[in-house]
């Protein structure tokens, strides 16, 4: 059975909390000077708990470092994906020979803006945006916005963005 890093962190937190509760109770008993019979001969147990705390801290540090590396790698991959997606779109717009206005309309459509929103942003009439959208769809060979977006998503997902290199690191395609 494989334990996830998050589950391990929770387990370490519980162990550390139990150890902390024991030490706080022991310190309170020492403070008021009332050692109970249950705490009188627990020095070996205190040592075991202290070692458990140190081990938990070391494991927590290692897991935090590992998760930090994972987050850094995912951010790098996201950055590569964003750049790759932009390159794919620009290449395809070139292949379709879209005008500057058609490129703007296509990009805004891909981003999910409505005809009215695009018209407002571009400070033009909705009819103009509809005509430009129709020209984009015709040149792209698609029937509408959803197919246009699907075209690029399919292209982006067709190959991995990063390939492992000989040294084990990931390199962009």
Q: Report the biggest beta sheet as strand number plus sense, adding barrel if it closes.
A: 2 strands, antiparallel
Fraction of residues in β-strands:
under 5%
**Averaged pLDDT, please?**
80
Indicate the structural class: mainly alpha
Shape category: rod-shaped
How many helices? The count is: 6
Strand order of the largest sheet: 1-2
Number of strands: 2
Architecture overview:
It is a single chain. By secondary structure, the chain is mainly alpha-helical. The chain has two domains: 1-78; 97-165 and 169-173, Winged helix-like DNA-binding domain superfamily/Winged helix DNA-binding domain (Arc Repressor Mutant, subunit A, Orthogonal Bundle). The protein is 75% helix and 3% strand. It has a two-stranded antiparallel ribbon. Strand 1 and strand 2 form a beta hairpin. Helix 1 runs antiparallel to helix 2, helix 2 (43-96) crosses helix 6 and helix 3 (100-110) packs across helix 5. The protein is rod-shaped. It starts with a helix and ends with a strand.
Task: Write a concise keyword list for the protein shown above.
single chain, about 170 residues, mainly alpha, Arc Repressor Mutant, subunit A, 2 domains, two-stranded antiparallel ribbon, 2 strands
Summarize the structure.
With 173 residues, the protein is mostly helical. The chain contains 6 helices and 2 strands, in the order ααααααββ.
């Amino acid at each position: 059975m494989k334990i996830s890093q998050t589950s391990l962190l929770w387990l370490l937190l519980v162990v550390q909390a139990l150890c902390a509760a024991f030490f706080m109770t022991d310190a309170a008993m020492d403070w008021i000077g009332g050692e109970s019979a249950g705490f009188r001969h627990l020095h070996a147990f205190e040592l075991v708990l202290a070692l458990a705390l140190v081990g938990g801290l070391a494991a927590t540090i290692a897991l935090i470092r590992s998760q930090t590396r994972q987050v850094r790698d995912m951010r790098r991959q996201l950055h590569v994906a964003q750049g790759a997606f932009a390159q794919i779109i620009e290449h395809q717009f070139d292949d379709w020979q879209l005008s500057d206005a058609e490129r703007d309309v296509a990009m805004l459509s891909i981003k999910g803006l409505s005809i009215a929103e695009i018209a407002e942003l571009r400070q033009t009439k909705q009819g103009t945006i509809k005509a430009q959208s129709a020209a984009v769809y015709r040149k792209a060979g698609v029937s509408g916005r959803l197919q246009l977006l699907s075209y690029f998503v399919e292209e982006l997902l067709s190959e991995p963005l990063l390939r492992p290199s000989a040294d084990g690191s990931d390199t962009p395609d």
